[in-house]
Design goal:
The chain is mainly alpha-helical. Helices cover 86% and strands 0% of the residues. It is found in: Cell inner membrane. This is Heme exporter protein B.
Length: 222
């Protein structure tokens, strides 16, 4: 079983890096959004600090939607998804590996780019620390919850619009608590409560999302 799961992980990484245009597109979108905002509203440091966390998180959510649709698309089209269901591997483990691969490919580069984004938006060190903490807790949640919606829409042609309509309202609470944590850091206030809420949401998603993703894929496959 470990060998099969390892094979799923290596295959997903190979497919992701083979399709470099689809891999780079969300990152370029995020970078363009963050760099264009200072040009549009002016370079005032106080203004950038006030809107910076929200801009980064909104850009992260929207850029994740650009690459989310391909999470199970190739597997569905070439029949690998059906073979995965028949292989005897618990489906929740297989989709968990695929979601982990998606997070590594889509969001780890965002974390690596975060110092540059913080510099563009004039974030203080305390704000940057809070931002990274929210990204570390929140981006796996984006992948887990997003994968459920992808599983439901994987069999639909042009399901990207429906995917956005399903996910954007769901991500609003995460956006609120994440930006609130960074705003509290800007005011030198504690933000552990916001991180605790995001962490609780992540723990709930880790416990339930793999089973929900597997069920949604079975529904779409049938």
């Amino acid at each position: 079983m470990n060998a099969l799961l390892n094979g799923v992980f290596k295959r997903d990484l190979a497919l992701a890096y083979r399709q470099k245009s689809e891999l780079v597109q969300p990152l370029m979108f995020l970078l363009m959004v963050v760099t264009l905002f200072p040009l549009g509203i002016g370079p005032g440091p106080e203004t950038l600090q006030r809107i910076g966390p929200g801009v980064i998180w909104i850009a992260a959510i929207l850029s994740s939607l650009l690459g989310m649709e391909r999470l199970f698309r190739e597997d569905f089209l070439d029949g690998s998804l059906e073979q995965m269901m028949l292989s005897g591997i618990p489906l929740f483990l297989a989709v968990g590996v695929k979601v982990l691969c998606h997070w590594l490919v889509s969001f780890v580069p965002l974390l690596l780019m975060s110092p540059l984004l913080a510099m563009f938006l004039n974030l203080t060190f305390d704000m940057y620390v809070a931002l990274v903490a929210t990204l570390l807790l929140g981006t796996p949640l984006l992948s887990l919850v997003g994968a459920i919606a992808v599983g439901l829409t994987v069999g639909l042609q042009r399901g990207g619009l429906l995917l956005a309509l399903l996910l954007i309202p769901v991500f609003i609470p995460l956006l609120i608590f994440a930006t609130s944590a960074v705003d509290s850091a800007a005011l030198q206030l504690p933000y552990r409560a916001q991180l605790a809420i995001i962490g609780a949401m992540l723990m709930l998603a880790l416990a339930t999302a793999p089973f929900a993703i597997g069920y949604s894929l079975k529904v779409s496959q049938n």
